[in-house]
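Supplementary Note 3. Input sequence used for the single-chain structure prediction.
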Amino acid sequence: MKNYIESSDFIYNLTRLTRSLQQAINESSDWYEERYVDVKSVKYNVKTGEEKSLSNMADISEDQIKKEIKDSLFYMKATFDENGNPEIETSLGNKFDKGNFINNLTYSNNERLKEYSNLEVVYIIPQDFEAYDDIFTASMKDDITFPDYAMLILIIGSLSILILIIAAFAIPYSKQNEIGICRGFNKMFLELKFFVWIGFIGLCAIVAGIIGNSYTYYGNEIGRFIYDAGPEFYLVGIILTTILYLLIYLSTVYLKYIYHNGLKNGLIDNSLFGKIFLICVRKIRDTIKRLIQIDLREDNYRKLIAISGINLLAILILGSGGFLGFILAAGYSLFIFKYLLKIFDKAKELNDASSQVAEGNFDINIDEDMGILSPMAKNLNNINKGFSLAVDREIKSQRMKAELISNVSHDLKTPLTSIITYVDLLKNEDLDLKTKKEYIEILDKKSQRLKVLIEDLFEASKASSGNVDLNLENIDIVALFKQTMGELEEKINDSTLQFKINAPENKVLCSLDGRRTYRVFENIMTNILKYAMENSRVYIDITENPHEVSFIFKNISAYEMNFEASEIMERFTRGDESRSTEGSGLGLSIAKSLIELQNGRLEISIDGDLFKLIVTFPKTNKE
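The predicted structure, written as discrete structure tokens, is reproduced below.
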């Protein structure tokens, strides 16, 4: 209130009130403004030389008026002489700009001072000035306090929005994607998102209109609404702020959705106009491509007719254009001539290259940018590469066949030879009972070994051919792996290896065949127990993202791994080339086939003696 009374805006309103009172007491009608008719926050008493008076303090005594003056926030007495020159006395002293008051009173035209001749005006601003509701109190709220209130709200709102956005980015997207309203907003068409924002802005405009209509004075209704801060202010503020913050949070999550799903899937495909635009672009591109592209492997009779028709239409249009058309037709003909000449040159180059291929020279390199002849150029360039790949594949195939026969023969022959030998020994009738029992135990062990080899061989054959019936169901793959580790606990405890396992505590659901997946983990762990260096550590990390879960196995090999990572997954391949350890060499081959049958991946990398194996399965979000 103190700042307002000392402001130029207060002086302006006071002069407007003075002019309004002067018009009223002199019964003049050349100026009238409704806002100054029923002022209550400023006590006034106006008198003229003709003993006319006008006051809103007529019902109080002189003593009460003196008390009002003594207790007032502001007091002013202006006495105008017969020429209208004022003598001004105020409680503010020099802080009240008397020159500004006179200029506003006369619009800088001193001749108008005569209208105020013999006028005496007394103004009193009471202590309860803020309790009134008129142009003066409204002006104070609008011009003095509203800018500070608005800035305070803006600062608080900006900081809280910044914190909200930071929090939205800090929360993992996988957690946010579990919330229904976030998923719904992300999948909503982009245009609908804009309509939601526009709807919110429209709601704010409607609320502002309602607030404006609820006041009768001319001024900043929003400023007065904020300053008074009644129950309706908090009701409207909480509702609008909640909607605003919710939209900002959902929009921030949508930005993360675009980041995780890519610009095309997250933005363009999520827009109705974007989809229509992409469809139109594809249609136009395909149409132009079909018109100008000729596939030499097909019958292009109709296409040639269409191209000829377009060419004829172009000639007719150019021919009807007079001299300018003649010039354009000449340029068009020159373009066609150069285009055909370029095709003939490319055809000659292709003919020369094909002649070299016919003579057995596959080392050729042709420019593939040949227009309609590009497919032929690409095929000729790929002949040398394809021939080399075919030779390499054939050599590798022959080598693998030889190794396969050798490995199968060795792995089946070893236990079979032992069985035959011990059967011959048992034919000796002079053997004592203890020795016979030892031989029978050896025969049982070797026959079981032979049985495992044959079963693994059949299992590998079925898995590689895809002839396996899968019983798919949603299972917790982490729990299945822990179960496998529990089954192998005795073997793990008997080994000298130290296992370091890092697994998530939450469920990780995958659509898998539990029995086949158990076999995968069993084969991998058996491989580690067999070939890892004694007294070393084995690291097993289970990681996941929104789409996949990966099992990463790392160990130090007890054998020198002088082979490629891909070779270890071939059938009958072992980590020890001497084949001194027991095993069929089919474990990883079977695991790889079973993983791929369940839409998974098996990757192996070798770095010196470090053996790293990664098994990846797709996740499912359904319980």
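Confidence is low (pLDDT under 50) at residues 571-581. The first strand starts at residue 43 and ends at 47.
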